[in-house]
Design goal:
Number of helices: 0
Shape: globular
Structural class: mainly beta
Distance between the termini: 39 Å
Order of helices and strands: EEEEEEEEEEE
Strand content: over 45%
Helix content: under 10%
Largest sheet: 7 strands, mixed
């Protein structure tokens, strides 16, 4: 099972940017569909963005479309999330997740095979 480790979270003012990274332990990183989820206090974990196994397709939650960009570097076994125009409602713990093969329904976070430990993103107004 792949091990995942997020980094890059922090405190930023509204309108600012952050770039999250998720380092994977396996050299077979390319076979995983990768996704970002987030969880705010008192709320359920929600889908943010995902990228398919071979960089063919990206998907975004409506709330982040046009502001966030997901990408991956399979040579470095790393997933990224560039977050621009951050707003206070983006405040949450952000998790990366991996699934071997396709991910049929991103709203179902239980389909993940592996999770990172999470990184806190706080956006002040």
């Amino acid at each position: 099972q792949v091990q995942l480790a997020e980094s890059g979270g922090g405190l930023v003012q509204a309108g600012g940017s952050l770039r999250l990274s998720c380092a994977a332990s396996e050299h077979t990183f390319g076979r995983y569909t990768m996704a970002w989820f987030r969880q705010a206090p008192g709320k359920e974990r929600e889908f943010v963005a995902a990228i398919s196994q071979f960089n063919i397709r990206t998907d975004y939650a409506h709330s982040v479309k046009g502001r966030f960009t997901v990408s991956r570097d399979n040579a470095k076994n790393t997933l990224y999330l560039q977050m621009n125009s951050l707003q206070p409602e983006d405040t949450a713990v952000y998790y990366c997740a991996a699934r071997v093969g396709p991910w049929a329904d991103y709203s179902d976070h239980t389909l993940a095979d592996s999770w990172g430990q999470g990184t806190q993103v706080t956006v002040s107004s």
